[in-house]
Amino acid sequence: MTETLFSKIINREIPADIVYEDDECLCFKDVNPQAPVHYLLIPKKPIDRLTSAMPDDQYMLGYLLLKAKQIMADAGHGDAFRLVINNGPGAGQTVFHLHIHMLAGRAMGWPPG
Ligand code: 5GP
């Protein structure tokens, strides 16, 4: 996978407002927030999109969901948050390093845009 903005954030080549980090993942504030809380949660493993995930990514994918739950709870939004994965350009993906949008702090409409 070619280097992306997000791998540069992992490597501290460009700055980000980091919320949480461990060996598996990094969570930072979206530079263009769509809600009062808008974090991006990314695996440190370079994987371009969910479609590219393989069976041996099962642990990592489950880990990210449980970590998202914990991060939202720690932010005081454990009861009402939305997670979004844009998979591919047709779904609005613009950065090709798998990421989960974590949104909270306002009412969420449905269907999403
Ligand atoms: P996507 O459209 O791929 O699902 O989401 C990419 C997200 O990355 C967008 O919400 C966008 O605002 C965010 N983003 C793009 N460049 C940067 C950056 O340099 N820093 C941070 N923190 N977020 C970024």
Describe this structure in words.
This protein is an alpha+beta fold and 113 residues long. It is 20% helix and 21% strand. It is built from two helices and five strands, in the order αβββαββ. It has helices spanning 5-10, 58-74, and strands spanning 18-21, 25-29, 37-43, 82-84, 100-104. It has a five-stranded antiparallel sheet, covered by helices on one side. It is globular and about 35 Å long. The model has no long low-confidence stretch (mean pLDDT 97). Guanosine-5'-monophosphate is lined by residues 5, 16, 28-32, 40, 86, 92-95.
Low-confidence stretches: none
- Measure the end-to-end span: 29 Å
Category from helices, strands and their pairing: alpha+beta
Q: Give helix % range.
A: 10-25%
Shape: globular
Strand order of the largest sheet: 1-2-3-5-4
Q: Give the number of DSSP strands.
A: 5
The DSSP helix count reads 2
Q: Approximately how much beta-strand content do the residues carry?
A: 15-25%
